[in-house]
Amino acid sequence: xxxxxxxxxxxxxxxxxxxxxxxxxxxxxxxxxxxxxxxxxxxxxxxxxxxxxxxxxxxxxxxxxxxxxxxxxxxxxxxxxxxxxxxxxxxxxxxxxxxxxxxxxxxxxxxxxxxxxxxxxxxxxxxxxxxxxxxxxxxxxxxxxxxxxxxxxxxxxxxxxxxxxxxxxxxxxxxxxxxxxxxxxxxxxxxxxxxxxxxxxxxxxxxxxxxxxxxxxxxxxxxxxxxxxxxxxxxxxxxxxxxxxxxxxxxxxxxxxxxxxxxxxxxxxxxxxxxxxxxxxxxxxxxxxxxxxxxxxxxxxxxxxxxxxxxxxxxxxxxxxxxxxxxxxxxxxx
Length: 334
Known about the structure:
Elements: H1 3-15, E1 17-18, H2 20-27, H3 31-43, E2 47-50, E3 56-59, H4 62-95, E4 105-109, H5 111-124, E5 128-133, H6 146-154, E6 158-164, H7 173-183, E7 186-190, E8 197-200, E9 204-208, E10 218-222, H8 226-241, E11 243-244, H9 276-286, H10 291-298, H11 302-316, H12 321-330
Parallel strand pairs: 5-6, 6-7
Antiparallel strand pairs: 1-3, 2-3, 4-10, 5-8, 7-11, 8-9, 9-10
Helix pairs in contact: 1-3, 9-12, 10-11, 11-12
């Protein structure tokens, strides 16, 4: 809506019904300008003429107007996207060789531009988003990826993310990851994830220029190329070796383990000395719970929890509490 149309529409909405004479003082327009503006509002379905003399006007309810204007803008954006796609295909056909090599990698600079690009890639993805997650972060990682939540819920997009183990040390991070898993994200954890990376289908990769330093808020946007293929292969190789955080990534429908660990071993049966309480404890360990929280949950003393955690670590050959929980999950014990 133009500025005069906004002014007249809002004045008409507040009055509900009005003649031109009623509105002329409200909107600071001449009679001729007001008449033309009212005519445009009527033509666009934003207002209607009522029968009788003098002519009275009524505004279309604002919620209906908002819906109509948003739908109109969405149609415009869809036409723009369709036209841009057709134009790009025409240029590639004319050039014969597709993109020039210099166009296969763009540089995105600035934290705001990086966030906007990340949102755009998630919205343009048709099948899946794959990511490598490690610090440092532009934003607080505990606040979550609201765009991911939206895409998982509304479009059923697949998200596969490999988290660096160090990222899980951030307070509240594990709880945030579990919320993503509950929404449908498939998550795994690995040591020494080499970089941050976002893959949009097999169409784009977003890769930070540097992990920190003056170029920390700059990234490469990689288009289809052998470089993009290499990033895709890197992700899949890391995924095969990473440890699944959620059980659905560990044990398939036929009861065999997925390739979440260092081998393709079948899911192991519960050891004879693994009690129901041990299984519950392992679930809490895998969720990143502290010994104090586990003690409160299971009604045990912290000393008893220490002993049982140490026993399970020894049983699975783990060096840390978290590794013990992940390895037990990987084996299908919980």
